[in-house]
Amino acid sequence: MKIAEIRLLAVAELKTKISDARNELMNLRFQAVTGQLTDTSRLPITKHLIARYETILREHELADKKEGAV
């Protein structure tokens, strides 16, 4: 998902995406520990995706705060 598409998501959708991505990361970590993970490059990709979601969520929060202050 591109950053422009993520910015269009609502806050609730972002929180859902973050939760899903964290669950996926946990499952990937379990697979890595048990030796079942074949594509280890998915770990940093998932971490990066979580960081993107959280950054956009923070941008939304700051924009809402700024609109409330004006």
Can you walk through the features of this model?
Helices cover 81% and strands 0% of the residues. It has a single domain (3-69), classed as Helix Hairpins. The radius of gyration is 15 Å and the shape is elongated. The protein has helices at 3-7, 11-34, 42-69. The protein is built from three helices and no strands. The protein has 70 residues and is mainly alpha-helical.
Task: List key phrases describing it.
70 residues, elongated, 3 helices, Helix Hairpins, mainly alpha
Estimate what percentage of residues fall within beta strands: under 5%
Q: Give average pLDDT, whole number.
A: 95
What does the overall shape look like?
Answer: elongated
Number of domains: 1
Order of SSEs: HHH
Helices, by number, come to: 3
How far apart are the first and last residues' alpha carbons, in Å? Answer: 32 Å
Helix content: over 70%
In CATH, what is the class?
Answer: Mainly Alpha
Brief summary of the model shown:
The protein has helices at 3-7, 11-34, 42-69.
